[in-house]
Structures are given as C-alpha cells and as structure tokens.
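hiii so my PI (J.) wants the whole complex modelled not just the main chain, which honestly fair. so below is everything: two entries, each one labled with what it is. i double checked the lines twice but i was tired so who knows lol
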Amino acid sequence: MTLAVFFGCAFIAFGPSFALFVFTIAREPLRVIILIAGAFFWLLSLLLSSLVWFIAIKASNSQDPSLQRGLLIFGVFFSVLLQEVFRFAYYRLLRKANEGLAAISDDDSSAISVRQMAYVAGLGFGIMSGAFSMINVLSDSLGPGTVGIFGDSQYYFITAALMTLALTLLHTFWGVVFFEGCEKSRWWVIAAVVSLHLLVAGLSLLNPLYEGSLPPVYVITLPTGVWAFFSSGGSLHSLSALCTRRKAEGESS
Amino acid sequence: MLKGLMFLCVLCSSVEQKIYVVLNETVPCVRLLNATHQIGCQSSISGDTGVLHVLETESDLDWILSSGPHPPYMVIMETAFFNRSVMMRMKNSSRVAGVAVIISKTGLADNFSPHTTCPNQNTGVYSESYGSDLANCNGTVWNPLGNGLSYEDFSFPVFALKDENQTQVLRKCYEDHNQRVNGSAPQYPLCAMQLFSHMHAVTDTVTCMRRTDLQNRFSINPEVLCDPLSDFNVWTSTRPLNNSAKGHAADESVVIAATRLDGRSFFWEQAPAAEGTVSGIVTLLATIQALYPVTQEAPPPRNIFFSFFQGEAFDYIGSSKMVYDMEKNDFVIDMNNVHSMLEIGQVGLRSGRSLWMHSDPVSRQNKSVDTEVSEEEGKLSLFSHPLPPSSFQRFLRARRIPGLVLADHNTSFTNRYYESMYDDAENLNVTYPPGLTPDEQLVYETDAAKSLAEVATLVARSLYLQAGGEEKNLNNITADPKIVNISVFLTASFYIGLGPRVHGPAHSVTRFVQYILANLTGTVTNLTESQCQNPSELSTENKDLFSYFWVSGPASVNGTREPFCVRASVRLSKAVSPAFELLEYGSRNYSTWTESRWKSIRARIFLVASRELEVMQPALVELTETKQKNISAKTEIMFIK
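here's the output for the full assembly
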C-alpha cells in the first residue's frame, strides 16, 4: 500500500513541472539545453554551499545541538545566497549565448527570447531543487512504515511533497522576474527575489510546525506567480483573449 | 525511551531513522529439513509485516483470529500462551503475520517440551524387525509432556524475545498506539513489526541437495541452499590408541562410556539443555577425572573408551557416524573390539538417591549378553522396559553388545522441559546462596554438583570393574564435587550447528570439552611451540598415539601467562551423518537433517498509516494534473514574445 504514498508524493511534487516540461519545453531542443544547463548551475551552487557547510560541521563540536542548529541555519541562508549568485551568473552566460545565437542565425535575431530563456532557466533550477529535496524522502516512502514512531507528524511525506511543489514553482517564477529585472536594470527586483527566497527558506526551518511553513509559502507563491505573469508580458487583455480564443475554437470545431 | 533512541544519532537527518526502530537482538526459528519433511518457520522474502497485538488473554486471541479490524497481526505472545493449541490455531489462521514469543519465567507452565513424545523413534534400535512391540514407544512413552512444536512447519516467522529492554520497547509502542480504548478498535497510525527470516531451502533434504548440486554444476555463482548438521565427537581412552591404524585393533577389548554433547530447542542456537545434556557431560568428565589416575597406576585388562557424541538430538548423528566408521574399518577400533557399553543419560534430577539402569530386553534374550549385563548391574532388574533414546541404541543396531543406560527416570523422563529453552540451571536445581561472585560460584559445591559427583563415582567404579580391574582399588576412585563446576556449562548453547565455524573448525562447546579432557588426562611436556605443532620431528613424541595442544596457561599475579604444551590422547572425530557420505539423502537408516541457509534475519518496528490517507494522496494528484493540461497548452497565447 505504500506504493500509493510513493506515487502520490512523486506526482504531487513533480507533476506540474513534468507537465510544463512536456508541453512547453520538450519539443524545442534549445529549450531543453537551457533547462539542463540551468539545472546544472543549480547543482553547482549546491555543491559549493554544501562544501562550506560540511567543513563547518566537521570543524565544530558535534555534541552541541544548538551549535548544530545554528550551523544549519547558516548553511541554509548561505546556500540561498549562492543559488541567487549562480542565477545571476547563468543570466550573464545566457545573454552572451543569445548574442552568439543571433550572429549565426539567418535573420539576425535569436531563435529564443530572453523571456523564454528566463522561464526555462527558472524551471531548470526548480526541477533540480525539487529532485534534491524529494528523492531520498520518496525512496524511504516505498517501505512499509510511515514517519511517526518517534513522535514526528504522520503527514511528513505529503508536506514534503507539497513544499517541493511550491519551491519548484517559486524557482520558475523567480527566474522570470529575476531575468526581467536584470534586463531592465531594476535592482530592487533582484533584492526582492533574494529576500523572498530567504524568507521561504527561513519558513521551511519552522518545520515540523507545518502550519507555520506550508500555508505562508503558498501565500507567497501565488502573488509571485502573478508578478511573473505580468513581468513577462502577460496582461489582463491577453487572459481574456485566451478565453475568447478558446470559445471561438470551441464554436468553430 | 524512543526519543532517547533518536537523540543517540545527533547528526542523522535520514528519513529512514525517523521511521524504523531496528531490533538488535533477534532469536529466530529457522527451517530444518530431513529426508521427507521440512520443519521450523519461514517468512516471505521481503519480510512479514503485521500490526502488533499483545496476546495476554483469551479475548486477545479472539481479536487476533477473528474480530480485529486490522489483520494481519504480528502477535506478541506471553509465555503462558506458547503451547500447542494456540500455535496450531495461529498456523491455521490467515490473519497472523508472525509471532514474537516472550521468553520469561513469569506465567511459565508447569511443563513445556516442544520435542516429540517419542524422540528419535525411527532411527533407534526398535523397529518392525527388532522388538516390534517396543517400537514407536508402544512399551513406554518417554516424553509424554512433549507437544511436538519443534517438528511443526510454520509458514510465518516466529522469533523469541529474550531481552527484557527490547520487550519493553515493543510494549510501549503497543500501549501508545494499538491499545483498545473501551472495547473500540484503535485508530491509525498503528504500531507494526516486520520480521525477516526467509529460508532458502524447501520441501526436504533430497530436494534441497538436488538443487544445490544443480547450482554447483551449472551456475557461475553457485548458491548453496542448505547444509548438513555436522560437528565433531570427542573421544579419549585410558590406554592410548593408534590413530593411524584403522580397523580392528589387535588385542584390544574396550569398554565404552558415552554421553551426548548436544541439545536443541524451538529456536535457533538456543539450547541450554541443563538436565538433558549438561548433567551427562559433567558426570562423565567427573568420572574420567576420578578414574584416570587409578587406570594409570593399576591398569585394568581392558581399555576404557570415553566418548561424547554430538548431534544425538537429530537422529543420532554422532553415534551413527562412529558406528558406521567402525563397521567400515575406518576408526581406531571396530565392533569386534567392543566388549560392553555404559551410557550416561539424563542424571540430574534424581529423587533421593535412586538411579535407574536401563537395558535392552531383546538383546538380553541372548544368554551371553544377559550374563554380562547382569554383572554390570550387580543385581536383577526389569526385563520389559525398552531402552530410552540413547546412543547405545545405534550400537545395538550394528551388533548385540551388552550395555546399560543410566538415567534418573524409570518410565518417562523426569525432565519436564526436555529440549526446550527452559531446561536451564533452575530446572537442574542449581542455586547459589545470594551474594556470591561468579568466581565463588565456580567453586561452590551445589547440591546438584554433589548428586552428580555421586553418580560419577558409581559410574567410575562400575567401569573399572567392567574393564576387569581389581576390587581393592575401588576405594581410590572417587569423584570430587569441586571438579563438577557446572556453572560454566549452564550458560552455553548446545545446538550442533553446521560445519566450519568462525572461530575454528569445531563448536565452542566441543572445543571446551576437548580441552577439559586434555587437562584432566594429559601430561605437561616441555616442548616449545613449534615442537608442539610438529611433534613428529621428535623421536620421543608420537603423533599417532597423542594429540598435542599449545595452551596459554593460567594468568599469573601480574597478568602474564606462561604457555606450555600438553600431550593427551584426546581426539575429535567428524560427526556428520553417513547419509551425506553415501549421498543417500532420503535414507531411512541414517540421520538426514540439514539446516536451511538464509540471507538476513532481522526485525524492526514502525508506524503504519491508514489506507485512507495513502489513497487520498493519489487523489490530490489527479486534481493538480487536470489543471496542468489546460493551462500548458495555452502558453503561446499568453506569452507572445
């Protein structure tokens, strides 16, 4: 019966990102490349931040729980900052790549716009971040037992999946907003993204008080999504165009 | 207590450690096979999981077998419920995933013997052709209290809980999550246990050995499925016998004094066997200690051959092998050398000062045998009783030699816990006054020790007379109760086990007896270590007549030891059933017992969630997925640039 938990949590955490990949990215090889490279950049940032954290842990007294907790908090925030640094680095790389792509194309314009690259890069970050959060939890959910014998909440698996989902979506939205901010040189946007990321990471440290971490994170996710939508050129007009187009297609077919 | 367990690992953030509590001390029941059947317990390959339920009352039994709403159950069985009727009901129920039996003295019934009522009935001497009215315990039922549980085949794992702390952990988990409140069913999440004890062998020894042969022949990485039970017999003699001269020994007439070296119980490697085995071993060792000096000063005409047989619980593995070797002329003596035999059975629970001598009525119909036996006994005794299960029966199967079996029982065993985990020091009435240190306990003369010493003195004197020695030396033969320091044996396990072991080629008890014998009968030599290991290089030493042991010696005051070389005529002889040498795996004449192999035996407890929660999660997924498709297809419209 715990196969149900495994598949349930896997689809909750990765379903949306998988669907986004299949419907918007899989057909275009350039987007796939940018996605994978984005995932790799996130991985690099994780590697560096984990190195720092590992050295800090080994150099410290392992018997002191408050020191360990403090090191964990430090590790989390340092990792957030490093992830944003790598996001910026990836932005610079993609800009350079964009110029090169424009040079070799037939009509002097790149095959992909910066906004699309922003979305794909954000999704790449999100997928890799979700994978690292969720895979070990998923493998343990396959066994016959559930969390709780030591007093932890029995909703551990599902809250982990929901948190992963939120983070994946957030990374996508932040990617869009961040790249737009860099393009238009609006540095307050970057500061906002960094502080939002720090806030979400800090909220996750409130676990296992799931009421304190999950609802606030989703409350942050929704406006961030709206912000990303408007930041990438969407508008209420295009939304209504979506509905009428759908109606028209429905009538004609 | 559980939180304490968690804080032990400070840095672990592994999810697995949040879920499972691994039980360290596991005592499983394993599968054994013989020519026709399999016995013991089996789990599925990925373990058997069940919701914990403690079986303390009859209503609990009802709950587990019929009314409980969360089958299958993993039963934690109180001692009082570990009997045949309950276990058979569990066996026939599909709602039991496994059993964990609490081994304790509280609630223990007056008797408990998982062995059969007629031990080794098919491989003894009584059969259709020899004493048919005595065969299959028609004459006397030796173990009437036996419930035969050890010889049943269970399709679920059965573990024993010997560690009190571990049992507490299980009870706490049960009380926290699984307890019924006012008769209503407990709510999820529930505490569950998973037991792993998957056995590789099935059906019987013939099948298992055939499959092992196929593996060995055709597989690149052959998997052995089962191993024959085997170990070593220990033997020694008052006059050294030439080990390299096999077959009939010229001018040797031998009186054999024997006892068994093994025991068993329902669970693997647990066999305290205090009354069943330790009483015999200790008595024979004391006999040897009493007899040996006199036989060196005033040697009797006949040789006295002392033997400790291993594997007797499993259809006489050790004694059948020795008889087989004797008949094949592959042993230092053969059946023609054997004059008579005296076996020490269970002698620990004598009531008063009585000791019973059992003889075989069928062979006593032969006049010469009868005269010898009467001489051995010194007086007349009953004719109609068969022999109790004993190694002497295997010798009788080969040749009608005169012999006796000594026991503390007349018709059926006085041992109420024959071949069970409860046949321990308390069963043997070995009690020490409170406040003694273990060292003091080692030299304290318990009443049991004094009783066994009396038996040993009797046996030693009888053997001396049987060997033709003179009566005037008898007064010098007395067993010392101090030598009979039983406590050392009372903590050991006497299960025979398999071939080569981790710490040397023989079982630890076998080695121990071998070294005690070397101590009692050997002489200290001044050989160096290399000479001790290769004595054939020296002309004064004879490797054929003696064994040489390099002993580390007693610890001196400042902790150093001075090792030395001991020369003794103590030897080990292989105790593996002749059926495996003859490759007759379905043999009816010899023991065919094998023990299955397994990969891992372990146990763990955890919580299980309700089915509803588990099913709800995929439902959530459905919701998210349906929204996806609609939105994703419309991205081009929403984001033109």
